[in-house]
Amino acid sequence: MKKKVLALFDSNQKYMEKMYHYLEDETKLHYTYMAFTSEDKLTAFLERESIDFLIVSEDKRRSYAGVKRIISIYENAQNDGLYRFCPGDEIVTRLTELLGVTDEENEIQGFSRTKLIGVYSPVGRVMKTSFCAVLGQMLAKNYRVLYLNFESFSGMNIEDSVEKKADLADVLYYFNNLKHEFGAKFHNSIINHNGLDMIQSAYYYLDLSYITQEEWDSFINELTAMNEYDYVILDLSDYLQGLFDSFLSRCTIIYTLSAPDRKAQSKIFHYETILNEYNRGDILSKTRKFNVPTIRNLPDSLDRLLYTELSDFVRKETASDFKW
């Protein structure tokens, strides 16, 4: 179930930001929270998406196409809205009454159906990104799927055929520093390719290497809590802080790609030895490991990958997980 969107739009920006952070950090109301600093940004968002509940100051209230319900913030106490000068806990209590949220409904709203699929290998040049693109497009025929690429140099940002939008580093910046604008930034960054949603990988991977494990945990929590996707495919790399704890341990399935040569197998053995030494049997138990065959002359176009030998290989190796 996709979480409902609760948005804030107030002429008093400091009050709005304070209310936003209080709702997000101190309450158990399970919504996707958004905040808008201008009417232009609000209307631009509503051209693409809808908002279930819009909390708006009385001087900004009007009819907005795409808003299902408006709740006003009043300078004087009123029966049909929120009183601006109430303590935070009283505002939440009143908001719960206005929204008609029961404890049971709130618990259901908080349930996430999003599953994480990790694709990682200590071995290079095993068509990991192509594997992700094919799997993502196959799943996207029946599910809502997001693909995130964490490669150091993916090349996605400089290809002429790729639409220029905010990349993953930009999205993380908003999440960590301007959280009230994160929802809009996230949706604006999405590129859809043959049904598969994706965000461009970071232009410079070091921008992501400084993200702490705690920050990744918060980001992944938000991503799954949004409930906008059935699957999120994570194309992972070694430099990520919290690779084991923040990413691999949280994946439902992990695909580890390799090659049959001795060097590749030695790297896989080293990786698995580390996991065993650090008691990460949970990661090993969810891992599907296989060697990728040599496939030459793969097309540059992502959608054309579906009509190659790689597509047949992906379908075969993942059939037990997705019942193709």
Describe the fold and architecture:
Helix content is 40%, strand content 19%. It is α/β, with parallel strands linked by helices. It has a seven-stranded mixed β-sheet with strand order 8-9-7-10-6-11-12, with helices on both faces. Strands 2-1-3-4-5 form a five-stranded parallel β-sheet, sandwiched between helices. Helix 6 (168-177) runs antiparallel to helix 7 (182-189). It is elongated. Residues 102-111 have low confidence and may be disordered.
CATH superfamily of the largest domain: P-loop containing nucleotide triphosphate hydrolases
Relative helix content = 25-40%
What number of domains?
Answer: 2
Total beta strands: 12
Distance between the termini: 24 Å
CATH architecture verdict of the largest domain? 3-Layer(aba) Sandwich
Order of helices and strands: EHEHEEEHHEHEHHEEHHEHEHHEH
Number of helices: 13
Main sheet overview: 7 strands, mixed
Shape: elongated
CATH topology of the largest domain: Rossmann fold
Structural class: alpha/beta
For the record, the CATH class of the largest domain is Alpha Beta
Poorly predicted runs are 102-111
Q: How much β-strand is present in the residues?
A: 15-25%
Q: What is the residue-averaged pLDDT?
A: 88
Radius of gyration: 22 Å
Main sheet strand line-up: 8-9-7-10-6-11-12
Please name the defining characteristics of this protein.
324 residues, alpha/beta, five-stranded parallel sheet, 13 helices
